[in-house]
């Protein structure tokens, strides 16, 4: 029951690929590698969406970016599976507005709020600051 239309999926895929491209670019700057060198395995090097970055290279980028990269790949996988845009908790549509603000969101705002409240209540540990919080503050 994917609530997103094909054109929405295409749009979010483009956004996610674009975000991934920025990380890949950063990694290329860091390592002075080419896209092709970064690729682990076969495939079309021009296809950023399917570009796999090796663990060794992931270790070179910051924690924030590597976390984001995982989320982007995960979200891209969900687009392929046609489950993108559904809340993983309740199965409801996450909503285009929320996805626009946070394309890697896995939960709807209700479930996310509940999760955050539960974490506040039960956890005194340091939280993973990246969590689901994906701010588009670059540039
Ligand atoms: Zn939900």
Describe this structure in words.
The chain is mainly α and 139 residues long. It is built from six helices and no strands. It has helices spanning 6-31, 35-38, 55-58, 63-81, 96-101, 109-122. Helix 1 packs antiparallel against helix 4 (63-81). 20% of the residues are buried. The chain binds zinc ion (ZN). The site of zinc ion has 8 residues, from helix 6.
Remind me, CATH topology? Four Helix Bundle (Hemerythrin (Met), subunit A)
Helix percent reads 40-55%
Q: What is the H level of CATH, i.e. the homologous superfamily? A: DksA, coiled-coil domain
CATH architecture: Up-down Bundle
- The termini sit apart by 35 Å
Short description:
This protein has 139 residues and is mostly helical. It is 53% helix and 0% strand.
Task: Write the topology of this structure.
Layout: H1 6-31, H2 35-38, H3 55-58, H4 63-81, H5 96-101, H6 109-122
Helix pairs in contact: 1-4
The structure holds zinc ion (ZN).
Zinc ion binds next to helix 6.
Characteristics:
single chain; 139 residues; mainly alpha; Four Helix Bundle (Hemerythrin (Met), subunit A); 6 helices; globular; disordered C terminus; binds zinc ion
């Amino acid at each position: 029951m994917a609530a997103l239309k094909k054109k929405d999926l295409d749009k979010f895929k483009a956004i996610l690929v674009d975000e991934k491209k920025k990380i890949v670019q950063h990694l290329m700057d860091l390592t002075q590698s080419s896209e092709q060198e970064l690729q682990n395995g076969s495939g079309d090097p021009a296809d950023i969406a399917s570009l796999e970055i090796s663990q060794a290279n992931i270790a070179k980028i910051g924690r924030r970016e590597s976390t984001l990269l995982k989320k982007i790949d995960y979200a891209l996988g969900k687009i392929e599976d046609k489950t993108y845009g559904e809340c993983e908790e309740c199965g409801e549509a996450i909503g285009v507005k929320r996805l626009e603000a946070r394309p890697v969101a896995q939960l709807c705002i209700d479930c996310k709020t509940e999760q955050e409240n539960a974490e506040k209540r039960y956890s005194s540990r340091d939280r993973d600051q990246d969590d689901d919080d994906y701010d588009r503050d670059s540039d």
